[in-house]
Amino acid sequence: LLFPVSNLCGRCRPRDTDILQPSLNFLYWSLHQTTPFSQQRAVAVLLSNVSLLELLQKVLECTWLWSPATEPVYLSPEDALLCSGWLLVASLLLYQHRYNTEVHQILSLDLTEVLNAVIFRNKKPILLLVSIMQFLRTLLRQNFSSSLLVLVGQNTAQGTMQPQPSLLQDAALYPLAMQQVFSLVVSLQNLLVHIQLQKEMLLSQAVVACLESLVEYLYVKNQDAALHVASQPWHRFLLFALLNGGQKSFLQPEVLRLMTLFLRYQSSNIISQKEISQILQEAAEANLAQLPEATSHALHLFLCQV
């Protein structure tokens, strides 16, 4: 089925949402819900389809063209298609890297546009934000190095990937600039505080995962920059805001994952021994068998880090 469905996608236009949206979803799940051997074959089939990749290029570019005039109250067919497109491309990036699959058509994206989609949000639906952050997280975990994707933006010159930094720190973090890093961190923090009031669990998980991948990327590129970002005093205010957003417990998955992140990068000004003791005390008193899976997993990572 991959052959006819991917060929059908390649003959469509981005406005053919009634055909494309379920088709891209089928391709996405074909990659994820299969055996590793079949997964490798599926990636090869999709990456060999030039018309499909050209269509995905056009779909992603529509993200900057289909901005709603007002805050969306539901996911429109166009936004649903964008979600499917970003998730599928993120998966192709992941599995192409894993299996070192041959690429027949390279995608091109403006890195500044991708970052701005998260930093400024521009009234984008929650699911679309989650999808773009999943894509950004994949890029960060691959150190912005992929055979499938070429990034362009303000830190590239004349279509090349050679850095033209004004600061040594920006050169170390290339293709990111330190100003973009701080803007992204502040935006992710604001998103966490905002969604804590709305109980948007899917978005909160995506935000924390993106923040984790960002700091990991910084640590690989420039340890001083990573430790500087992880120790920002605003993180402590963020934890207070999360703990006062309705649930007083430390045993919230986003709180536990943030605590783990700060422990990993030794941010002693953000998390203290007292808070570590409070988490251990709450864990000792909790019925672990009844904890949600996300909380149980986050608690496991926290205890391992401690």
UniProtKB/TrEMBL annotation:
Transmembrane segments: none annotated. InterPro entries: Immune_Signaling-Apoptosis_Reg (IPR052133). GO terms for biological process: meiosis I. It comes from the Eukaryota. This is MEI1 protein.
